[in-house]
């Protein structure tokens, strides 16, 4: 095996840069929030809620712009019969950030939540919060594993080093600085990550475009030269599939802790909205070099390059077209600079998902469900342990699980069909309750899993209208097999069914119990009859301090006040502003 020394040196330099910035950010902000009395655990989770526009804009953009984003965009532009028309991630995630900023960022930030699961536990109780934690955790862990797996494959192509060694080293660096600095380290390394991607790719693009083996990309966009035009097209029979996938990106990109982690770290609700809009613009800008590299790959006569006569798509290496173009169409010094920057950026992409998973577990499962009296120091240690555990789990999956991408696809679909409609209900639909939430959970999961997942060899048991079968080569085994292709937009239909099921079952349960048609004693979830009692309110308390709850959990961090338990779960903007009402709400 040949070791490319220049490549190793370039990657080592960028890795050390990421590590240095992560440690520096942790040291710089080690006392952040102490003057205001903010808990250390909250500072790790949401950065003391003082992330500014510059760092915030970069870290919000990095919610989706990472190794998977730039590699995936280039891959779809390059693939024959797909092309730019099917490279939906740039516009899908950009619109996701716009929709999130318009409708979700303000209510989440203004109420002062710490994680995405807080409103669910507030309204539906700790048990339902635990159920919703499962798809959220799966999404974060499988995303991290997919990133690390792609990174290992990329590094093995670039420098011929052992794939397992590269995955382990990358994961250890990301876990280390996340352990030390929490969100501050994640945010500051995101700045370096995006800068590395932008500079590394834009330095490489001109050299690749002017390579003698590359034809004019404006010609290959509309005419077949070496393969189908890279502009791509959407056949009429695939229209609903295209719409389904686009809705998955646009709406399914919202209910992720990695997004709300940034939203909730903003210094105000307005800042959170502005950061979302800036990040939407950043998503589009950062996609441009990836689109160009995918187009370059589709316009290359590979027989004239050091890669060989057989094109990457024919070697089942289309997913690595970006590093292949950088390596074989650019001068060595440009190639290694670009590849080193991209590799470091991919490594840095895994940190926020690991932090998100540990934040949700430490707060919503350990603290709120099992140990409401846990000290701040105890929560910090639980976070540190789970960062290591979840990071290790993602690393192991990247190394030993051949179906990590299939698991990621399925879990991201479950986030879309289960968590998004529940988030919509809990924030904007008055009157939903735990019965509706449970029904929606089951509806969404059943309808999505019923559609099957070819990548996991999971056969469907629900055959939606327009289904067909195709002979496809399995990406892991290389065997030809017959798979069922669902042409119906069943993912979006599953999401809508979940949403409508939540509303319908919630109002039905409310009517049956309150009208007396079902005895109050059968309200075993305490979701309707006893919903406003002190006992039930205590079950959904977000943070307990004796008999009080911190107002900072439901509003802006400053000033830190306390409110009565009953007032803590009342929307402050609907409270009577008269002095008579105020004296029952605020006390010291």
From TrEMBL:
UniProt record, GO biological process: acetylcholine biosynthetic process; neuromuscular synaptic transmission; synaptic transmission, cholinergic
Q: How does it sit in the membrane?
A: Multi-pass membrane protein
Q: Which InterPro entries match?
A: Choline_transporter, Na/Glc_symporter_sf, Na/solute_symporter
TM region(s), chain numbering = 7-27, 85-105, 131-159, 165-184, 191-209, 239-259, 271-296, 333-358, 379-400, 406-428, 435-451
Report the function annotation for this chain.
High-affinity Na(+)-coupled choline transmembrane symporter. Functions as an electrogenic, voltage-dependent transporter with variable charge/choline stoichiometry. Choline uptake and choline-induced current is also Cl(-)-dependent where Cl(-) is likely a regulatory ion rather than cotransported ion. Plays a critical role in acetylcholine (ACh) synthesis by taking up the substrate choline from the synaptic cleft into the presynaptic nerve terminals after neurotransmitter release.
> To which protein family does this belong?
Belongs to the sodium:solute symporter (SSF) (TC 2.A.21) family.
What protein am I looking at?
High affinity choline transporter 1
Q: Which organism is it from?
A: Sparus aurata (Gilthead sea bream)
